[in-house]
Amino acid sequence: MTSGTARKPSQRHNRTIILPIEQEKYRPIVSAPQQFRAWIDQNYRLHPEIFPDHFNGNYKLHDDSTSEKTDVRTRRIKLRNGEVWTVHPSFVLPYMTGSTDEVAKALYLRQWGIPYEGLVYVFGRDPNYWYRMETQFGRKSIVATTVKTAEIPVDLLADEHHEKINSEKVYIATTVAVGCVFGAEIAPSASTEDLKNAYGVFKNEALAVDPEYAPNTEIPMVGAERKERGRHCSLGLFSFVASFMLGFAFVIVARSWQTFLN
After folding, report:
1. Exposed/middle/buried for 78, CB within 10 Å: 0-12, 13-18, 19+?
2. In whole angstroms, what is the distance from residue 152 CA to residue 260 CA?
3. I want to staple 202 with a disulfide (CB 3.0 to 4.6 A). Which of 9, 174, 183, 249 is the partner?
4. Could you tell me the pLDDT band of residue 62, with boundaries at 50, 70 and 90?
């Protein structure tokens, strides 16, 4: 996301069902209607959470098309209520923007600070392409993407990460639990209103998954309330970061010592 203001989840329905499959197995299946239906039915039995709530296995094959970008053929199905959904293979990204494996490897290198020009040298394309690939994750609901059949945790940890956008200081309102990130939204300032709006994105996404969801921890805790009631959260985050940096420093020293000995 490029702006510094918190946004509400998009109200536009993305009627796409992404199913796991390898590219070599997909091509003969998509060309055979009976095999294609069998593939959908099998995935519905194994992963019903991927499909819309009103799917129920009642559908018919609607039409098909081939992407000019990737030459990958996809089919659409029509549900009993009249909705038309695209069945999308997992080896290619949504909107046919690229190969899942290729983009995954490139974005893995981004976490180590590899510039976009470096990705171009290794994987081709252009810097703007890799910039879009990195920022496109803001399109999806984090909660809906992370939570499948499991319940949304009710014990949460919330804190703000200080960052800069165009040299302007902003705050990333982060919500985490059980080793997963459930919210990461930009707040333009540390004011109560801006932080509540940023944390409210997680709230809206959680309620979209479970309308009766209510966490035990209060989010956000800002101002004096955060100082009094959220101090243990900040200390916990500080301890985690300190431990990580200490371990990282140990690795650097060990590698330098090994180089010196050699």
Report:
1. middle
2. 50
3. 183
4. very high
Does 3 score more than 50 pLDDT? no
Instruction: Name residues whose C-beta falls within 8 Å of residue 159's C-beta, 6 or more positions apart in sequence.
Output: 174, 233, 234, 237
> Of 3.30.160, 3.40.47, 3.30.450, 3.40.50, which CATH number belongs to 146-222?
3.30.160
pLDDT at 241 over 80: no
Identify any residues that bridge with 99 across adjacent strands, giving them in sequence order. 92
Nearest of 9, 8, 10, 6 to residue 185 by alpha carbon: 6
224 Cβ contact list (under 8 Å, min separation 6): none
Q: Where are the domains of the chain?
A: 16-95, 99-139, 146-222, 230-262
How far apart CA 135 and CA 147 sit, in angstroms, is 21
For residue 50, what is the DSSP state? Answer: G
Dihedral in degrees, nearest 10, Cα atoms 1, 180, 201, 137:
30
The CA distance from 218 to 37, in Å, is 46
| Cα distance between residue 74 and residue 81, in whole Å | 21
Q: Are 170 and 2 in contact (CB under 8 A)?
A: no
User: Residue 54 has what pLDDT?
Assistant: 85
Look-up: residue for tokens 């989840």?
9
| Side-chain half-sphere CA neighbours of 64 within 13 A | 14
DSSP secondary structure letters along 42-94: HHHHH-GGGS-TT-TT-EEEEEEEE-TTT--EEEEEEETTS-EEEEEETTB-G
Structure token digits, residue 197: 């709006």
| pLDDT tens profile 6-33 | 344 444 467 899 999 999 999 999 999 9
Q: Evaluate whether 188 touches 125 at the Cβ level (below 8 Å).
A: no
